[in-house]
Amino acid sequence: MVEQTEDRVRERIAEGQRAAENRVAAAEEEAAELVRDAETEAAAVRDSARAHSAKAVADATSEALAIVGRAQENADKMLGEAREDAGRMRSEAETRAREILRDARTAASDVRTEGLEIVDNLREMGDSLRSNAERLLRDVQMIHSRMLAQLDRVDGGIAPEPAPRRGRSARSEPDEGDALDVPEFIPPG
């Protein structure tokens, strides 16, 4: 999850960088176009001024230089604004990326903490179940022994005839010396 977030962060930063570069490139192209247009206009003014007098040529040259200067100022201003916008966009993308990454790390930490808590609870539950099963087994063995002792007192100690052996599950009563089987869910102690 953290790797995916880091990838998304890198993508956002790259996206911001591309947007900033596109904005700067567009501003540069527009500035270059403004300068070309100004130079074209200045050349046209200069050409038309040549046709007039020398004073007109000087005025035209002066006016052309003023136009070129204003065009250059506009281009520089647009380029500066584009760079500022690009820097701001990059900064915002990095800030947002850090926030997403921090949130992802917090979520991952929370999931880990909850997982460890669940594991501890399951261990405790397993220990409790094992303890209860062992206690139940002891109680059943004790009751079984008591019942056999009572039967022996009632019978006067006469042992019943052994039943034909057909396997452990076919026996009606276990021998007095037999221990009960431990259920499968209780590991041998």
Describe this protein's structure.
With 189 residues, the chain is mostly helical. It has a domain at 2-124. Helix content is 80%, strand content 0%. It has two helices and no strands. It has helices at 2-51, 54-155. Helix 1 packs antiparallel against helix 2 (54-155). The protein is rod-shaped. It starts with a helix and ends in a 34-residue tail after the last helix. The relative contact order is 0.09. The model is unreliable at 168-172 (pLDDT under 50).
Structural class: mainly alpha
| N-to-C order of helices and strands | HH
Q: For the record, give the distance between the C-alpha atoms at the N and C termini, rounded to a whole number.
A: 42 Å
User: Helical proportion?
Assistant: over 70%
Please indicate the percent range of residues in DSSP E strands (runs of 2 or more).
Answer: under 5%
Write down the overall geometry: rod-shaped
Total helix count? 2
Number of strands: 0
Concise description?
With 189 residues, this protein is an all-alpha fold.
Secondary structure layout:
Layout: H1 2-51, H2 54-155
Helix pairs in contact: 1-2
Annotation keywords:
single chain; 189 residues; mainly alpha; 2 helices; rod-shaped
